[in-house]
Each structure stands twice: as structure tokens, then as C-alpha cells.
Design brief:
Layout: H1 12-42, H2 46-65, H3 67-82, H4 86-123, H5 126-139, H6 143-158, H7 164-185, H8 195-219, H9 228-261, H10 264-300, H11 304-331, H12 337-340, H13 344-349, H14 351-359, H15 361-376, H16 380-405, H17 408-432
Helix pairs in contact: 1-7, 1-10, 2-4, 2-5, 2-9, 2-10, 3-4, 3-6, 3-9, 3-10, 4-5, 4-6, 4-9, 5-8, 6-8, 7-8, 9-10, 9-16, 10-11, 10-15, 11-14, 11-15, 14-17, 15-17, 16-17
Organism: Actinomycetospora succinea
Transmembrane segments: 16-36, 48-72, 93-115, 135-155, 167-187, 199-218, 241-264, 276-305, 317-340, 352-370, 382-401, 407-426
Keywords: Cell membrane, Membrane, Transmembrane, Transmembrane helix, Transport
């Protein structure tokens, strides 16, 4: 069925904003912690900050590649929720959590062995690579917690549970934000661990969050045994989302590797702007998550009209938010980078990326809002095609041409700008059509 025949309902602006604001609290907790982490390590000097940049971008690939656990689970759980079957929606979370635990174990073993090679590849060897290796070999133990949390967010968003994720995420990341400077600098009874203290704080956050999400599943009183059929269904949708995520990660890994070739100051400056970019992606993604939940539920209830109204509303809200963010970052361009590092050499490089970051805010907001609509509809195959295509044709070539011609961060961030614009055109065309609005569970 591809057209809604049931009476349409409208969740209204209040419901959209309620889901988005709850998602925002959850989403910004991790980037805020990473910004705190960046600021704490940044005061150790350029080499530790560059080591964190290299190690952190590798660890971020786990979350990036694992987003299929969140987005795929949200899409499937939301359709069951829209059809009135909460137990089936929660069982999607059980399947996703088992997948998360299995993949997490593989990630620990793999990254422990490959950490030195990856650090040399991305960091260009020397002190930066050594610092990144030490950080990564500790931080990787948080991988199962990262993936379990993604699964937990997925099924809770699907059933429109807006309160428990806030408690879970604030508990884990709040505790680690307090402990991080204590372990890095050595305060009171805490040992001075330097950069490795940042890694231990990261592991603590992921462990707490993962355990709390498992506890939430237990309280739902559904069967917790793994069901192979449910897990295969998760992987079916997850395949396209995984390939889409892989395209993102290939681009950002390449960007860090190329930035490192221009020196510790360049990769440190790239880390600062990239963390702010990640933070804003997360903020803008709050509306996308509201769209995923509401569009999935609407299509599960055979209401295409509702899905289209949600699409229009989140796009308008996203554009307003993106414009406001662009103005704020433009005004604070002379102040904000200094919060993350006192090194004048690093601050001198930041503007090469900063103004691309500012100009992209409204366009990125439009893209992320419509990404959420299509993810809620389960249109993962289309998103995979346009993301991989844009990465291969636009972003990756520009990154490596930057190395060949010495364009530095200007070339890297110009590539990101072209990538975002290409995706904006593609998702806009798709949502104006009808192929994405398929109803049923």
C-alpha cells in the first residue's frame, strides 16, 4: 500500500517540539561531554589534543557505523507502535541489543590489535600517533556500551518514550564530565593520568549508560532471549544504513588523516571545529529524530497525510534553527576557539575551517530534517545511494586533492560543503515525490 486511506491526524507543533526537545537533551549530552574532554585535553598542549583528535575520530566510527542500531530500530519500532503493538516494538530493542553486544566484542578485539597501525596511518607517526594509540587502547573498552546505547535510543524513540533516555544519558555523561578533569590533571586522591585519564572517563560513561539501557529492557517484561528472525530483519534494514554510515566515516577519517599531514596545529584546529560541527549535527538531529518517530508511526497507521505534514513542519523548524546557529557562530568567531586551546598557532589555523562551518548551518539543518523523514519511512536504500554517491564523487576527491595541492583545511571543509549541498538537492527531490511514503508495518 502506497497511499493513506485512513483518516489523517496531525501530531501538531507541540508534539513535534516535545519529542525534539527531549531528543535534544539526550543528543547534546555526548557532544557536550566531548567538548569538555577537548577543552580539558587542549590545555595539555597541541600533541595531546592532536592525539585525542586521531584516537577520537577512530572511536567515533564505532558510533557512526553503529547508527543503524538506532535509526533502523526507530523506524521498525515506530511502525509497530503506530499499529498499536508496543510489545513488538520493544522486541526490536531486544534484537538490536543482542546485535550491539556481539558487534561490541568484535570491535574491542579488532581495535586493540589495529590501534598502532590506525594511529600511524591517521596521525602521520611520531608523538601524535603514540598518544593516539595509548588513548584508543583504553577507550575501545567502551564500545559495547556505545552500541547498546544506540539500540536503547532506537526502541525508546520508536515508542515515543521521551523521559528515560534523558535520565540514562545525563547520569553517564554527567558523571564522566566531572571525573575527566580529575583524572587528566590529578586532583586530590585521583592520579594524574594525562591524556589516558580522558580515555578512562570515556569508558566509565559508556559502561554506565549501557547498563542503564539494559535495565530499561528488563523492566519492560518482554522475553530477552535472542530471536534470529528478528535479528535478521534488523540486519536487512541495517545493511543500507551501515553502508551509508561507512561513507560518512570514510570521509571524516580521510579528513583527519589529511589534516594531520599539515602538522599538529592543523589537525588540532580541525578537531576543534569538527567537534563543534558534531555538536551542531546533534542539535539539528533532534528534529530529525522527532520526524523519524512521528513519520514511522503515521505510516504504520496508514496516514500519509500526517507524514507529509510532519515533514513540512520539521523542515521549517530546522531552517530557523540553522539560521540562528549560523549567526551565533559568526558573532563568536573571535572568542569561541580560545575556549578550547590557549595555543596561538592552533587558533591561527581555525579560521580556515570556521567560516565553512558557519555558512553550512542552514543547509545542514534542511538536510538533517529530511534525512529524519526518510529514515522514519524506512527509505534507507535511497539514503545509502545518495550518501555514497556524494561521498565518492564530491567529498573524498576534494579531501585528497587538498593534500596534493596543499589546500589545507580550506580544501577539506570545501569538500564537506559540496557534500552537504549535493545531499540537500537529493533529499529535497525525494520528499517531494511519493515513493518514500509506503504504509504498514
Amino acid at each position: 500500500m502506497t497511499a493513506g486511506t485512513e483518516p489523517d491526524t496531525d501530531p501538531g507543533a507541540r508534539r513535534v517540539l516535545a519529542l525534539a526537545s527531549s531528543a535534544l537533551v539526550v543528543l547534546v549530552a555526548e557532544p557536550l561531554y566531548l567538548l569538555v574532554d577537548t577543552a580539558v585535553v587542549g590545555h595539555l598542549g597541541a600533541v595531546p589534543l592532536a592525539g585525542l583528535a586521531v584516537g577520537g575520530v577512530v572511536l567515533a566510527q564505532i558510533a557512526g557505523l553503529g547508527t543503524f542500531l538506532a535509526y533502523g530500530t526507530t523506524a521498525r519500532a515506530a511502525r509497530h507502535h503506530g499499529a498499536g503493538d508496543r510489545a513488538a516494538a520493544v522486541r526490536e530493542g531486544v534484537a538490536a541489543t543482542w546485535i550491539a553486544l556481539g558487534v561490541g566484542a568484535v570491535v574491542i578485539a579488532t581495535l586493540w590489535l589495529l590501534a598502532p597501525w590506525l594511529a600511524d596511518l591517521l596521525g602521520g607517526g611520531g608523538e601524535v600517533a603514540a598518544a593516539a594509540t595509548g588513548w584508543l587502547r583504553i577507550a575501545v573498552w567502551g564500545a559495547p556500551g556505545i552500541l547498546v546505547a544506540l539500540a536503547g535510543h532506537g526502541w525508546m524513540r520508536g515508542v515515543q518514550d521521551t523521559r528515560r533516555p534523558i535520565v540514562v544519558v545525563l547520569a553517564g555523561n554527567g558523571l564522566s564530565a566531572i571525573v575527566c578533569p580529575l583524572l587528566v590533571y590529578g586532583v586530590g586522591p585521583f592520579p594524574e593520568l594525562g591524556l589516558e585519564g580522558s580515555a578512562w572517563a570515556n569508558v566509565g560513561a559508556q559502561a554506565v549508560v549501557g547498563l542503564l539501557f539494559v535495565g530499561a529492557l528488563v523492566r519492560e517484561r518482554v522475553s530477552l532471549r535472542p530471536v534470529p528472525a528478528d535479528m535478521r530483519a534488523q540486519f536487512g534494514l541495517g545493511r543500507d544504513l551501515l553502508l551509508r554510515s561507512a561513507a560518512f566515516q570514510a570521509c571524516f577519517l580521510s579528513a583527519t588523516a589529511v589534516a594531520a599531514r599539515f602538522g599538529a596545529e592543523s589537525v588540532a584546529a580541525h578537531q576543534i571545529v569538527l567537534q563543534l560541527w558534531t555538536f551542531m549535527v546533534t542539535v539539528l538531529d533532534a528534529l530529525a529524530i522527532a520526524a523519524q518517530s512521528l513519520v514511522g508511526a503515521a505510516l504504520g497507521a496508514a496516514s500519509v497525510g500526517t507524514a507529509r505534514r510532519v515533514s513540512g513542519r520539521v523542515t521549517r523548524y530546522g531552517l530557523v534553527l540553522g539560521c540562528v546557529a549560523g549567526v551565533v557562530f559568526a558573532v563568536t568567531a573571535g572568542v569561541l576557539p580560545g575556549v578550547f586551546t590557549p595555543d596561538p598557532a592552533v587558533r591561527d589555523v581555525v579560521p580556515q575551517a570556521w567560516w565553512f562551518f558557519v555558512a553550512l548551518q542552514p543547509i545542514a539543518a534542511y538536510v538533517f530534517a529530511l534525512d529524519g523523514v526518510l529514515l522514519g519511512a524506512g527509505d534507507a536504500a535511497y539514503l545509502r545511494r545518495i550518501t555514497v554517491g556524494s561521498a565518492v564523487v564530491v567529498f573524498l576527491p576534494t579531501i585528497w586533492l587538498s593534500l596534493a595541492f596543499g589546500w589545507g583545511l580550506v580544501g577539506i571543509w570545501a569538500g564537506l560543503a559540496l557534500f552537504i549541498v549535493a545531499r540537500a538537492v537529493a533529499v529535497g527531490v525525494r520528499v517531494r515525490g511519493e515513493d518514500w511514503a509506503v504504509t504498514g508495518t
